[in-house]
Amino acid sequence: MVLKDKRLPSYPLMVKDPYFSFWMPADDPTESDVAFWHGEPKPFAGVLTVDGKEYRFLGKGEQPALRLVQTEVTAFDTIYTFDGDDFTFAVDFFSPLPPSDPSTMSLPAVYVNYTFTSKVSHDVSVSLAMEERACFDTCRKEERTEEMRVNKYVLPCCQTVSMGLLRQLPLSNSMDEVGADWGYIYLCGQTADSVKGDRMWTTVRNDHNGANNVSDFFVVAFDDIISIFYFGQYLPDYWQRNGKNIFDVIAHAYSARSEILHTCQQFEHKLLTDAACYSDDYLLTLYASVRQSVAAHKLVQDKDGNLLFLSKECNSDGCIATVDVTYPSMPMYLLYNPELVKGMILPIFKFARMAVWNKPFAPHDVGIYPYCLGQYYAVKNGSECRDMTVHSWTAPEVLPFYYQLPADYDLFDFNRQMPVEESGNMIIVTWLYYAVSGDKQILEENFDLFETWVKYLVKYGLVPDCQLCTDDFAGHLDKNANLAVKSIVGMYCFAKMAEALNKPDLAAEYYALARNYAGQWKSLYNDGDHTMLCLDNHDSYSLKYNMAIDKLLGAGLFDDDIVDKELRYYDKVAGKYGVPLDTRNTYTKTDWMLWVAALGDNTEVNKYASYIVNFFADTTQRVPFSDWIDTKEPKYYTFRNRTVQGGLFLPILKAQWSELCKTK
Prior knowledge:
By secondary structure, this protein is an alpha+beta fold. It has helices at about 100-105, 245-255, 255-275, 280-295, 325-335, 340-350, 420-435, 440-460, 480-500, 505-525, 545-555, 560-575, 590-595, 600-620, 650-660; strands at about 5, 10-15, 20-25, 35, 45-50, 55-60, 65-75, 75-85, 85-95, 110-130, 150-155, 160-165, 185-190, 190-195, 200-225, 230, 235, 295-300, 305-310, 365-370, 370, 585-590, 630. The two termini are about 35 Å apart.
């Protein structure tokens, strides 16, 4: 199924990972340059030539633009249809990212498919060109120029032209709003060439003479050389396992195109079946989420053969394997490939056992993408760690290797940690992964950590001290009611772990604690027709999205009357674009809105999805799907292209939980 003429703030065109991520920030692809996920122009040009007359279908340029008549989106496609004088031309930007199939998902190649249809025959050529700025970081200076290396190769399947920096510096950048100054982008078609003007361009062209019905494609591929630094190991992309190289990738993209399409169609069919009982608005939010969420990760394999699915916390400091990004994004991956959830949390366990992490709570992250070098969040500034000053999001730098520091090194500022948040997250996420995978080993190997973290929740979780939660942009909060919910659900999940590991006394202890704390929570945080933002803060409210896991598990920790009155109260304070996150501001989070919707029935899901689609329709800020938006005005705040949009699948996960769960 395709959704026709449904507007997105920005359209994914060619997206595969945080450094291979090209978007169209306009309704008409001829009205704007293609852009990197963070917004820098990365010019591509698409030109259709019919009997010698040129028409533009992608990017800015001198040729007359084709007339756009329809835009369609699916999970993996953005399709534009144009009308000409006596022909129709459609171009499909297809990024195969099915989370159900890691090999296809990680293949660093995308397709630009097209069809030309006319009642009469024409000589037709289609060309796709790329300007040099696509191949290096331009976040700090769009006018940056560099010496480029261009190579042309004649392969059995195609001709291809590659472009990249003359001086390659793999993994020379990290931080957040920074692109890669390494790797080569390959354009593949019938014929390939390059043109040097003010800037270098590479181009490919397909010719179809005497044609009236044409269907063909280009391949665009990215070889990043090395993908991840993992605590001293340099890891290539998952597709490079078994000695494969970029030319194998290109050959596979051609030879296995039908199989790749079929794999994606199978995923699409499953998604449509899962979403069949909901509205088109909800389906559109899912379509807007899939490519973005997957492509803000990188899939690699460590030396022991473990899959590592590493998120980049795009536009919110660039951390890698962030726990409170994993927590909201996990629903899509639990549904379609739980092993990816395991790949999200394994790095956290690894770092939590290193000497420098001497905390009784879970880490927030393990570094800055693409470096797993120890938690970056909360590293001290100033004189105590003069050589470890926290850097700018746009600095093209690499941080020190924090993981190498000795035990008791005074590296972190406790005031900037998220101790209850991340401890609850790790326990909950791991239990949910086990519940759908049956992988008891992960519980056994890390049970000592879970015991340490759950004791922290018991001690500090019911009435949390002033601290940050995942909504850190809203600032510190004392006695946070929603954070208390997470700690209680975390205790319950720990009890489930103990039960699964045949520790009945420990399980009984923590079941009792969770239920006792839940009863106290109801007394402490109730405020008439809703619950409070934080203790004793009367006439305040907040979205209690953490209750969604209680609902999913059927634990019954929080009574239906509490949930029902919360939902009714949210209706009273809703704006056109959603329900505010809490009393302090008019903004909200799109992921948390769908978690809240999962507390109710399908009507709630459709209602909350309609808020988001209202935002899509009205916003003039053309950025990838932001999860932090205003509820009164169609504007976003900072965040874009973040993995957390996988959380919009929580209503489906809840509906299917009993079928998915292997621990009934």
